[in-house]
Specification:
Elements (H helix, E strand, L loop, with lengths): L3 H14 L10 H7 L4 H7 L3 H12 L1 H10 L7 H21 L9 H32 L8 H17 L7 H18 L14
Helix pairs in contact: 1-4, 4-7, 5-6, 5-7, 6-7, 6-8, 7-8, 8-9
Length: 204
């Protein structure tokens, strides 16, 4: 990166603008002005507004992804415990990302879906290999009994991303809790763990 400061200013500018406006109503020129640079300079770093948003999402999830990759190597910790720690880190980042907007509920449904799609795509793509590795370690250790570690990782990620982000399919806290309980029950049955043994995952 030729100039990390300018790159960061562009992301900060979009982040600030999103506190008051829908992404569809924010122009590249407006982002450039907020970042105190010319439109041409902005295009040196990003080819489009969508690319800036994607980079902003990546920045917001950099820390939990780093945590996830470190946890993948800690075989002395139960695989389910590591999964719960990863989910909690991602949930915290998701809450912070949404809280930066003064009134997220005022955002239009299409905008919420658009931003959620970016979040879901990035998180699933980045975390799936890490969770697959953790599940596979559990299989090798005899703690998990499941033939398709990658499929299990993807299923868990999609359910949690949709429910914990709570924009694509808005739910009450009670409905979210019920979904998490259902997921835990399926995990227990699917991985041949005793009923109730994974209830600590509710901490996410």
């Amino acid at each position: 990166m030729a100039n990390d400061t300018k790159y960061t200013k562009i992301l900060d500018a979009l982040q600030k603008l999103l506190e008051a406006k829908d992404i569809k109503n924010i122009s590249v020129s407006e982002i450039a002005r907020a970042a105190e640079m010319g439109k041409g300079s902005l295009y040196y770093y990003f080819p489009s507004k969508e690319a800036i948003l994607e980079a902003l999402v990546e920045r917001d999830y950099a820390k939990p992804l780093e945590t996830a990759k470190k946890l993948a190597s800690k075989t002395d910790i139960s695989p389910f415990t590591r999964m719960a720690m990863i989910f909690q880190a991602c949930r915290n980042s998701s809450v912070q990302f949404r809280s930066r907007r003064n009134a997220p509920s005022s955002a239009s449904a299409p905008e919420q879906a658009f931003i959620h799609q970016k979040y879901l795509t990035y998180l699933t793509a980045e975390l799936k290999p890490v969770l697959t590795d953790i599940i596979w370690q559990g299989v090798q250790a005899g703690e998990i009994h499941f033939e398709y570690p990658a499929a299990l990782a993807e299923i868990v990620l999609i359910v949690l991303a949709v429910k914990l982000d709570n924009t694509l399919a808005p739910s009450t806290p009670e409905e979210t809790d019920e979904t998490i309980l259902g997921l835990i029950a399926l995990l227990e049955k699917g991985t041949e763990n005793p009923a109730g043994s994974l209830n600590f995952l509710r901490a996410i």
